[in-house]
Amino acid sequence: MSARTVQRLMMGFYVVLFFGFLFGPLLVMAVTAVNTAQYPQVLPFEGFTLDWFVVLLDDRNLVDGIRNSILIGVFVVLLSVPLGLAGAIVMTQIYDRARSLYYLVVVSPVLTPGIIIGISTVIFWRDVADSIGSESVYSGLFLATLGQSTFISAYCMLIFLSRLQRFDPSQREAALDLGATHTQVFFHILLPFLKPAVFSAALIAFLSSFENYNTTTFAILADKTLTTVLAGRVRQGTTPAISALAVLIIAITLAGAVLYEVLRRIEQRREQGRAKAAAMAERAEVAGGLAPAAALMSS
Amino acid sequence: MTGLRGVLFVGLPVAVILGFWLLARWEYRHGRDSHRQSFVARNGWPVVAFVVAAVGFWALVMIVLPQLYMVDFSFHPKLPPSQRGGPRDVYTLENYRYFLFGSTRSTASWNVTHITAFWLTIAVSMCITVLNFVICYPLAYFMAQVGTGSQVRKLMLLLIIPYWVNELLRAFAFNILFGTSGVLNVILLCTGVIASPIDFIGQDIALYSGLTYAYLLVMMFPLYNALESLDHNQIEAARDLGAPWWHVHLHVVMPFAKPGIASGCTLVFMLCAGALAAPLVLGGPKTLWFTPIVYDRFYQAFNWNQGAAYAIVLLLTCILFVMMVMRVFRVSLSEITR
Questions:
Q1: A149 at the B interface (CB within 8 A)?
Q2: Facing residue for B311 by CB, picked from A28, A95, A115
Q3: pTM of the model
Q4: Has residue B100 been placed in a domain?
Q5: ipTM of the complex
Q6: Which A residues in the span 73-132 are in contact with B, Cβ-Cβ below 8 Å?
Q7: A43 and B280: CB-CB below 8 Å?
Q8: pLDDT tens profile B121-172
């Protein structure tokens, strides 16, 4: 055997081990969800059942939790995407002198442990609610939305920033020269350019919110979300019903993740197509024909 | 909120916005770049109003003020609502003293449990960070430099799919694996490797491997992104010049991937040290981990002020770690969070 074959075999072995470690525990959990045994187990496999999934439907707390999780997720999207967009716009235009401080402030939530964001949100808003005498501020749904948006907005901002780096400022100049107002430039040039980033930011925001536990467990107060209900169940003891729930949640998040990936790849391909068309148009222009106009039209 | 605090927390946002505005005016007047337009002229009033309101709310009301308030809060004693702002609401170090020395009624000179848990959390988090790097590096390198296009796309999809699985569920999966009558014990018992079940959870094996598992992919993606942009010719050149394979990695590949390594390490450490789900689900009765202690300050001791102090200890640790990483790897904050 040559050294190269040995190397390739070792690499293959390592890849198998790695993905075994990554998927093994999840597969084991999935098997326990359909095993009739009372305790989550794989061996011996006593028989196939879907009863553990049916048990879930009768669980009122769980249904409430899921409703709240979706509600919070939607609010987080509605809050984080505009905040992230505004944050990114400021980042690209702020004076250099202030940029590093600004960056430090808005990116710090990404590097802060989630429980600290949850704790500080609750402490701060409890006393704000006290001092303005409005108890409605001090509600679990509101605080969970705010707490999660603190760092999810930063995710959104980073997504917008990477897209804005590819923005060609001459588009803005062209629109202004043609008599557009600044507001029109924002709505007709910048926003359409950012559209794919808006979609991915919204999806990432919803997923992050839906699966968040650390911040939510503090910020949610007496209410419950899917993850806090789940945490309570898991701590009480392990039953196959939790495995069934896990399988369901994973299926939902996977659907979201796959959707995101598909959208991203479609967008990438479209972008590449556009770049190719632009390059062709430029080549035609250099060649000196009237072709560029036609090429631009067709792209 | 008492008078002074009220002034601080209303005055600060106003002062910050005024400061930024003055800075902008000054830069505009004295700017070297005479073509530069002012922020308002460039964006138009409606957009400016939206951006300033949004960023002001986010940066100040959501990020800075709660953190500052938590710091202030941690220096106050726990009081019933009626006494807040009263004569007993003074600044005190009591909450931090408790972390170091424990209850005044206890005879031990140090608060051994909490301090041990704290150091153990940091040490284990660091070990897990290094371990995750070691596990991820070969695959990241393979995908970025060796594998063919279609191989990489398939591997990438396999990595993205489990990325979004909730950490509670990961912990639960490990609970099934490692429980006393869990899968691993059943297999080991059946095959006769062991005679009686091993208490993986009580010995913290379950917790440590669960944490390693939970944040594996957080290390993978930054590492891959950094390695991907390395020109393969550099590796070829080093090889042609006779460098052994470990030399290539140590002196060519890793220095290039520094931002990615720094980014992965910071995130994994922060997530590990701040992990709550895994210790709650995989921790045994004697498990020492810092975050459940913080959690208990709130939900068992009902002493929020003390909980805030503990949270700040954790926060400071994370800040120190980020600064250390930036110093060791000589990278900037923007390279870490890319």
A1: yes
A2: A115
A3: 0.86
A4: no
A5: 0.86
A6: 82-83, 85-87, 89-90, 93, 95, 97-98, 100, 102-117, 119-121, 123-125, 127-128, 130-131
A7: no
A8: 999 999 999 999 999 999 999 888 888 888 888 888 888 877 878 888 888 8
